[in-house]
Amino acid sequence: MCKKPLILLFFIIPQCLWSQAQFVKDTLFTNGDSVVVSATRSERKLSNLTVPVTLINAQTIQQTGSIRLTDILKEQTGLTMTSGFGAGIQLQGLNPDYTIILINGEPLVGRTAGVLDLNRIALGNIKKIEIVKGPSSSLYGSEAMAGVINIITDASNKVPLEASLRMGTYNTKDINLNSGLRSKSIFYQGFYNYYATDGYSIRPNSNNRITTPINRLTTSQQIKLNINDRTSILFNARLTDETIKSNIAVSNGGVTINSNGKEHNTDANLSATLNYRFTPNLKTSFRSYLTNYISKQDLLTISGAPYNDLLNHLFKRVENQTDWAVGKNLNGIFGMGAVWEGVKSSRYDSEKLRKENAVQYGFTQWEWTASDKFIIIGGIRFDKNATYASAWSPKLSMLYKLNASHKIRLSIGQGFKAPDFRQLYLNFTNAAAGNYSVFGSAQAQKVIGQLNSLGQIGVLYNNYYLLKDLEPESSNGMHLSWEWTPTSKTFINTQLFRNDITNLIEVQQVGTYFSGAQIFSYLNIGRAFTQGLELEFKQNINNHLVFSGGYQYLITGDKDQIAEIKAGTVYTRNASNMSTRLTMSDYAGLPNVSKHKAQLKINYTNQKGVFANARIIYRSKWAVNNTNGNEVYDNGDDFAQSYFSLHSSIGKEYQNGLTVQLGADNINNYIDAIHLPNLAGRTYFINLKYQIKYKSQK
Amino acid sequence: MKKQFLKITFVLVAAIQIVACSKSETITVPVVTVSTKVVKDLIADTVLGIASNGMPYSAGKYTFYSLENNAIVPSIDSASAKWDLAFMSTRIITNGGTSGPALGGAFIYTGLFDDLKTISADSIFKTDNAPTYAVTTGSGKGWYTYDQLTSLINPLAGRVLVIRTASGKYAKLEITSYYKGGVTLPVSASDVEKLTKQRYYNFRYTYQSNGSKVF
Q1: Nearest-CA residue of chain B relative to A250?
Q2: What percentage of chain A has pLDDT greater than the value 70?
Q3: Do A99 and A143 touch, CB atoms closer than 8 A?
């Protein structure tokens, strides 16, 4: 491990390169919304991409009245919100663990049970969100197995000052302040957001607030220096600080223990990027990034016993990427980087000791424009890790333009997700629920061995002897899509996808204590698949009205479970409560996955600045809980019912820079307190925004 | 407590008997040694109330049952060989080992009730040895699963309790519900209802009175 030189690099590289003074006009933030960076790690026009990318622009975010990242993502095809450990996003049936969340290309950290709470991210300064699904995301390394969501903040400084105030149901306040400064060579953008809510309780006869009172402050500062026409430097600093009033109820054996207190989370990100252009055909960028997520829970149970939890995740990365236009039709990318990360947690053996991991990686990608009809891209990435097996991630994608109105895209690739710190180092005994223990795989054998020599172990299962170094979870994915634009007013995209996942890391019982309490650890055992179809369309009815929508059909399954069902060794109960053999027709696949998801949207705008929209989101039933105890999700289990929710907003943007907006969410007031705790009943909001614009701009 | 009796005579056995009888021209009643019965809502230390701290309380007493007679045995006979099984909340004990004076034992067979036609010769019957029992206790380990999210208890599908009775005969038993009326409560039921309507055993069993391991 080369930890020390790595840290040195982190500080030295940006500075020493700054001193080289040759400058070009920077193209990092090109105007025009159809430019995408996430799909190929370089700027490409949306229409020339070999993979389908969903692009959400600032206008859409604003007109739907979205304030947190969750609000806008749940309205996208193929994306489903999950609840539990914060609001996560499920992408084409894969859990939140498998989607990497980037801000300006840099990853966010601080996941609880694999979920990164997307409510952490304010949308007030966002220029666009790029969503890349499937294997093309493989150049981003671990976590980018299902896809990449890249949030690009606005550094274009169109607006010197913008302020907004939003008030809504449950005393929800959202205040934004955006300020920009620009001169010939310096761009500055400052963003402040304050969000607070009283939370709400939709569970009757309960003092538990599903969404608890929150105070959250976010600030983001960006400075871009165009040092000369070859060189530019970009600094980003972002800080989110939230305090959540917690009331946690832990239920065990029908007895509920309540704890009260506070949760305090801090998410800090710091990055510096240097872009340098040697020639018009050769440019390079150095990026250094530091992020720290600290989550603290200080709770007291009703009996007065303290319950404290700490998570501190530090992540540092340096990366260099060089883009080389070899010829007119051949573009190459070379990149390499190093990551050092460490986690301290009260759920590991010592909360003072940081568990560490170091990764070195390299990648290359080649794009060949064979003709004006055919583009092909191949790429590969290698990740070398200190604490688990290394991983190769290859990808291949192509675009074929049949004619002006038909495009076919195909991408094939392999992604991976590294074992996370929890799976390696957890050392947690739940005193509140029967004293069961979970030990991370890196030390399970050692810890259990010590307990055994103390005579505390009752039984060791075969799983204990199978414990070994965890390997990354791996996925082979394929996406095939057909884009059809019969007229300039109609867009239809159909996509077929399939992901085969191996080496899934699952919690398994490895033995028991002498007392009978269970002991768990993690093993690479699962094999699963997701496959389906996505359909997206957009129709301009006239100059004012746009009708759009999307639908996803999704089938998932655990391959080992399917083999057992086919072998006739899985049982369920029939209507008269008698045991029967489970058949594939009653198999429900993976939990929390709906077969059908759809959304429809109608959008109205006119020249006077009036905008209005109505959106409807539908999700079919999904398996939640394996109630009949056969370890397989089937029709005899607990399902959340299918539902739809209706959202609408209307507003007007005045010439003087004032915008007034009224909105209502979940107008049909659909509530499912147990399965959809994040869906409040009907809520309303009013939003006032004021912009001072540059006179030269409209 | 309601009880229903359902007798299933084996048509095949009966038919063979009739054919056999027709030759000797005498009419004999076929000897039925195997019968399947359904028991509904057998109470097993039901919850009497909920204390101010939210904890349910009950009398803490077993309900003793004779599979041979298909009847409850008074607890005064708990030290006798008159009962085969006893129930207290999710725990089921057999009349043997540390639980009783007789020959009782059990093991859990994974498979369908109807598919278990013969107890294989190499099967090992366990006897109660408190705190471990022949019918393993605990969620997911023995006959039931407890769902933390919904606080509901469901019998595991495809589990048959194979019982050696107090007198050393054999029975197979499948629990179909733990709730009053034989239907697990909906997830939306109140916590109080979930506590007060549980501990009602609904099961079916087949008892072989001739001492063989064939059902």
Answers
A1: B148
A2: 90
A3: yes
